[in-house]
Structures are given as structure tokens and as C-alpha cells.
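Schema walkthrough. Field components (list of strings):
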Amino acid sequence: MNKKITLTDEHIQQLYKFTHQHYVEHFDVQTELVDHLANDIEQIWKEQPKLSFEQARDISFKKFGVFGFMDMYEARKGALNKKYFKILMKYAKDWFRLPKIFLTISLFLFFYYGLKSVYFDYFYFSSFTILLVFGIIKGTLLIRKIKKKQLVTKRKWLLDDIIYKGTFVGGLMLFVNINNIVSLGDLDASNKYFSLFFAIIFTFLCIWEHLTLNVLPAKSEELLEKQYPEYKLV
Amino acid sequence: MGNQKLYKGSLQTIILKLLEQNDKMYGYEITQKVKELTKGELKITEGALYPALHKLEADGLLDVEVAKVDNRLRKYYKLTENGTKETVSRLAEMEDFLRTMQTLVNPKFSLE
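Field assembly_structure (string):
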């Protein structure tokens, strides 16, 4: 039986579907897996030419272990989260250098004196609420935007998802934790560090929300092109 | 097949060494090359290879290139400048480790 050694376009498409069925949705991760499976299937066919495409594919898939593609997927996600954090830190550093440091200091002083004023409780509550509500609204809009983009392009990129969605859950957790610190840490207005502590927290939150919800999503195309050499190829 | 656990901690160094010698390689090629060089003694599993590659990439030691080969896209890994420096230091560490192990496992006795 003369079996084709190179996989057809149809086989490649089937492999993309196969990775999707095994919970890998992102095109960048799928692409690396598809090429690996395709190479292995071609090798298996050289040794056992009578096997069908599906049989050879299943033999290859088993080599990924009991968790299938999950180990690889999680590792990729971890690596890209790390990359995202590095990018975030790069932009965050600007806020502690000239000229933006003046803005950071102004923000800090605004919160510090607001929290030291007689209306500190209203000030604390309004600052917290404004930052939380802005985060939820902007986060929801970003999720909608990325879903729309994925629907139009019919492709999902892992870094894109991290940029648009990754910070949403993380951000909400941050707010919950701030509340926990307040209730557990006995931090009330009588504490002399109250204004200082929350002025720092609110300043960081402002910068963090601005970067994760405005700056990085606006630069997502540029970041994706840099991360994925294949982004413009497909 | 030897004890794979003994090789586990050296996977990143093996990858770096291969890339130092081969300019750029793709995942499957790395598994096959290791199998060929060790005559089947060491088989890098898919579940270990890609996490290691992705970690090295995230650490800035590897760079990626994508090319269309046949009817599919292929992702190649190559050393960055930092990766080349790191390979030298990791290989030196590995040689030290091998020397230490050699002393422990097969000590040379002397009459002095």
C-alpha cells in the first residue's frame, strides 16, 4: 500500500479540530501542536504504513500523557503570563521616572490629603467605588471587544486573551483582598498609617487600571505582532 | 532505556546545547535529534519538552521564528544573545556536576 508520507491540507485542518476538541482553543498553541502531531504521524507512517490517519494520530496523542495537551497548554499560559507581567512592569516603570513621576506624586498627595481630611470616610468609599466600578465597566467592555474580534477573525491568540481578559478576574480579586486587609488588619482611620497606606494602594490601583485597561489593550496589535511571527502570516 | 528521572533536571541544558550547535530547531526535531544522538537511550517526552521550551522563551533565552513548511506553519526556536551566554554557563555547571558525580560514584583511591 502506497501511503502518502506528507499530510494533506485536509489532515492539517482535522488536526486543528482535534486540538480544539482537546481543549486547546488558541491558534498559536494549536499551530505548534499540529506541526508536532503532523511530523510524528508522518514518522509513524514510515514505520507502519498500513495505519489509518486516525490510528496514527491517536498513537501520537498518547505520547502527550494522561493529561493530553493540558501540560503543554498550562506551561504556555504560564510563560505568556510571565511575559505579560514583564511588559506591564516595563510600562509601570515610566510612572516612577520623569516626567510621569510628577503625576504619580500628585495622585498620591490627592489621596493622602483626601484620606486625612474630615470627610475621609466618604473619600475612602468614593475612591474605592469609582475604581471598582470603572474596572468592572471597562473590563466588561474589553471582554466584549475581544469576543467580537475573535468572532470576526475566527482565531484566538493566547496573549490577546491575557491582555483583554486576564486582568479582569485578577483585578476583582485585588479589590476583595483590599477589603480583607481592612477588615483583618484593624486598619481604621484612627490608625496613623491609614492615610499613608491607602494613598499608596489607591495610587497603585489608578496606575494599574490605566495600564491594564487602557494602555496595553490599545497596544495589543503591536504586542501580538512582536510575540507571534505568524500573526501577519495567517 | 535509562532512568529518565536522572535526565529530567538537565532537559533545559540539553535543549540549549542542541540549539547552540544547530542554529534553529523545531520541537519535534529536538526530540528526534536527542533520540538519535543517544541511540534511543533518552527520549524527551512531549509533555516535558514544550513546557521547557516555553519557559526558556519566557526567560528571554530563546527567540522564535515561524515559517510555512509544506502545508503547515512551523515554529523554530533559536538562542538569543542572553541564551548563548547562558548556554556557556549552564554547560560549565553541568561539567562540574558530572565531575562531582564521578568522584562520588567512582572514587579513585590513592596510597597517600
